[in-house]
Structures are given as C-alpha cells and as structure tokens.
Design brief:
Blueprint: H1 6-21, H2 27-43, H3 50-69, H4 73-110, H5 128-144, H6 153-161, H7 174-177, H8 189-222, H9 229-260, H10 278-284, H11 287-298, H12 308-326, H13 330-348, H14 368-389, H15 393-403, H16 417-436, H17 453-470
Helix pairs in contact: 1-2, 2-6, 3-4, 3-5, 3-6, 4-5, 8-9, 8-16, 8-17, 9-14, 9-15, 11-12, 12-13, 13-14
Length: about 475
C-alpha cells in the first residue's frame, strides 16, 4: 500500500476513526490498533514479509529484556552482537547476496579464471533498510544504557512497524518514538490540521513535482546515447528534483500522518537545495539517516577527534557505507565516495560548520555570494545525482564523457521538450514557495496569508487541483527499492 493510492485513501480514514472514536479511552487498545494497521499496511505488498519484520521485532524485544537483566559486559556484548548479526544478516542476504555473487564472479573472470556463479531469485522486502536501522537503534541504546529496555511487547512491535514511516522513514530512534507509545494521547485539532497540511504538501511534492520530473529524467537517462551533454545535465536536474520531491514528499506525508494520531516524528529534510556548501547539504538531506550514521558509526570510529588521517578515513567510511546502504550497485558506492571528496576539503579547513542557519535567515533575499554558493552546491549535487541515477559504472562514464565535452554548450533538446519546459516552470514556482517558507518546518506550515480566508482556501484548492490534474498514474516512491 502506498500513500498516493486509492487503497490508502480508504485505509487512513478508517484507522483514524477507529483510533479516535473507538479506542480513544484505552492506550493499549490504541497501540494494538496501530500494530494491526501497520501489519495490514505492510502486508499489502507481500504478506510473507510480515514474518521477517515480526521475527526481527521479537528478537530485539527479548534481547533488550536480557540486556536489562545482566550487568555482565561479556553477556551484553554477546547479546548486542546477536542483534547486529541477525538483523544485518537479513539485510545483507536480501539486499546484497546477488550483488556479492556477481562481483565475485566478475573479479574471478578479471584475473583470468572462469566461474559459473548462480544467483537466487530474491525479492527485496520493502523498507527493510529502514526498519532494520530503527530496531538496531533500540538494541544499541539499551546496550549503551541510554535507554531502558521496554517490557511492553505491543508498544515495541508497534514502534518497529509504525506504518506512517515504516517503509521509507524517517528512521526514528527508539529514544524518541518508543516512549510516545507509553503516553496517553488525546486528539489535538490544531495538530491534526497541521498534519493534514503537511500531507497535502507531501502529495504535491510527490505527484506533481517528482512524478512529472521522473518522466523526463527517464526519457533522458534511458536514451543517454542519443543526447548531448547539455541535455544529459538537464536530465540530472530533473532527477535532482524527482528524488527530492519523491523522498521529502514521503517524509512529509509520514510526519503529517503521524500527527493525525498524536505522534511527533523527527524532521527529515530541511530545504537542502538552499545549502551553501556540501556540509550544510548533508545536514539538511535525509537527516534521520545521516544522524544515525553519525551517532552509531562515525562517532564510535573516533569521529573528528583524531588526527588528520583518522578524519579522512572516517569521512570516506561514512560516505561509502551510506552509498552502499542505498543499494547493491557500485554506482551507489561511487556516489558516496564522490560526496566524501566534496566534503573533505571543507572538513580539513574546519569550514564544515560555517552555515548552521538557513540561508538569508533574517532577510527576504540572499546576497550575491549566497546565490553563487547555492548554485555551486546545487551543481555539485546534480553531478553526484547523475552517478546515483546511472545504471552502472559504464553508464556513468558514457554520460560524463558527453557532459565534459563541447556538446555541453549546445541547446538542450529531447522528445517532449516543450512540455518539459512547462514542468520546469512548475518546479520554479515550487522552489519559490519553498524559499518563502524555508524558515518553517515545511514550506506551507504557516500558510496563512494576510488576505481574505477564501483566498487562503483557494491556495489549498489549487494544490489539490494540480495533484488531480498533473498527478498522473500511481507511482511507487523511489526509496521503496532501498
């Protein structure tokens, strides 16, 4: 079941009504309802995968209990190792088994050998990368004694499978989301309205911006041999807005839906395309994943406290792992390493924390220097997104050989270019709205203009109208494959 489907349009109101009008006075009943709803939501794709998420949940629930019963360091490490091994083992098998088989076979052939490696017909469980990291945050925090183990299995199972953010995040920490299942929740009209507004904006991002940009990104990338460097670069721009609208749109819908049920999820995007350097970009893009890697991998490796060599090593490790997390393809690893190279000079010059506030925080417009910095950062991001979108390393070489050629200076042109120009204008208006609302939690969080109420409502009706007109067919979210 996906957010932009008719199924979800029926599912959400039914669960909302049952939650607030049938189970409101009983916290455990509310949690049971959310657990059942989450399993229905997830099982809609393939009911077989419910056993996997249930097993992971049960394993980490009992590991947490056992950790709480012992102070023995060796036993606690053994329990943590068991959680890491099983959860990452599942993730590695379903996501990377065939990749490693292919890579081993290719390497063997490269050195003159010949091996017939058989691949398995493995179906990747939707969202496994997300809920695996979510449940691991629980066992790691319990091991570190920063979180007490829960004795409420319903709350824990509901935490792991919470349907709004189950398949594509935000990747919630147990320390933030799990305690919310213990507390009595009462309906808050203002919170629900804000949630509805964020859902609407998320649907607009996904169905109007992302899905339309996807059409032209696919045309260009799938026929890259036919197009000039300038057209391929334009394809990178389309993909940049596709992946941003798609992924941040999902996060907005997830956060907004959670608010309808009285839950508060962490912010996952903070207007990353207004960043003035790559360090700022990564503070604003997929925040839940970047902070997860920071707290559970980068800092344990030593972070930035060691010498220059340790800083360089840890930076490349964190970006390479982040790239590999995205999928079983060397393009993702290369994408991560390229971003590490972007980041490294800024870090070594101690300029990675120069831009902590949103651009033009106390002004309506940016300075010329800020505009230039944003354009450079966006260009670097687009170039890395081209690597991310490419089919393989050979495809990367083909595309960049054209981008870094004289054809870069030709006029972009491809099939349906005239319609694509209209979409570019829609994207420009979208970014203008994002700019106006950049100081808010999401762009239209406080969309109450000093104009008659009918005009305020007209703004929302325009968004709904554009979703219905330009939304097109039901399309999966990009990050479902990760």
């Amino acid at each position: 079941m996906i957010f932009n489907s008719i199924d979800f349009a029926y599912f959400l109101p039914v669960i909302f009504i049952l939650y607030w009008f049938v189970t409101q006075k009983n916290l455990k009943a509310q949690n049971i309802l959310l657990l059942v709803a989450s399993y229905i939501f997830y099982g809609w794709w393939d009911v077989r995968f419910l056993t996997l998420i249930a097993f992971s949940s049960a394993l980490d629930y009992f590991i947490g209990l056992k950790m709480g019963e012992t102070e023995n360091p060796k036993k606690r490490k053994l329990l943590l190792a068991l959680s890491l091994t099983v959860n990452l083992g599942f993730l590695g098998f379903f996501k990377y088994f065939n990749f490693f088989i292919e890579s081993f076979s290719d390497a063997f052939t490269f050195f003159g050998g010949n091996i017939a490696a058989s691949k398995l017909n493995i179906i990747l469980p939707v969202g496994i990368s997300f809920y695996t990291f979510q449940t691991l945050s629980y066992t790691i925090d319990v091991y570190r004694k920063t979180l007490k183990p829960t004795k409420d299995p319903i709350a824990f199972f509901a935490f792991v499978s919470f349907f709004p953010q189950l398949v594509a995040g935000p990747i919630e920490r147990a320390s933030n989301l799990l305690p919310q299942f213990y507390k009595k929740r009462t309906f808050d009209y203002d919170l629900a309205v804000q949630g509805g507004r964020q859902i609407l904006w998320g649907l607009f991002k996904k169905m109007v911006i992302a899905d339309n940009c996807a059409t032209y990104a696919n045309i260009i990338f799938n026929n890259s041999e036919d197009y000039s460097g300038s057209t391929l670069l334009l394809g990178g721009v389309f993909f940049a807005f596709q992946i941003y609208g798609d992924f941040s749109g999902y996060s907005d819908i997830a956060i907004g839906t959670s608010r309808l049920f009285g839950f508060d999820l962490m912010k996952n995007f903070a207007f990353p395309y207004f960043s003035r350097d790559i360090a700022e970009f990564w503070r604003r893009w997929h925040i839940s994943l970047s902070t997860w890697f920071r707290d559970y991998l980068y800092i344990p490796l030593g972070g930035s406290k060691g010498g220059t060599w340790m800083k360089i090593r840890n930076t490349f490790i964190i970006f390479a792992v982040s790239g590999f997390w995205h999928g079983a393809n060397w393009t993702f690893v290369l994408w991560g390493l390229v971003n590490a190279m972007y980041f490294l000079p800024i870090m070594l010059l101690n300029r990675n924390r120069n831009n902590m506030e949103i651009v033009a925080h106390d002004r309506a417009l940016p300075t010329i220097k800020e505009v230039f910095s944003m354009l450079v950062t966006f260009t670097l991001a687009v170039l890395s997104w081209i690597i991310f979108r490419a089919e393989n390393i050979g495809h990367v070489k083909e595309i960049f050989s054209k981008i870094f050629s004289s054809s870069l200076f030709s006029k972009p042109d491809f099939y349906q270019m005239e319609i694509a120009n209209v979409i570019l204008w829609v994207v420009a208006i979208f970014m203008l709205i994002e700019w106006i609302g950049r100081k808010q939690e999401f762009a239209i969080a406080n969309a109450k203009f000093r104009i008659p109420r009918v005009l305020n409502w007209s703004f929302y009706f325009v968004l709904v109208f554009m979703i219905l007109i330009f939304g097109g067919s039901e399309q999966d979210f990009i990050y479902f494959q990760f």
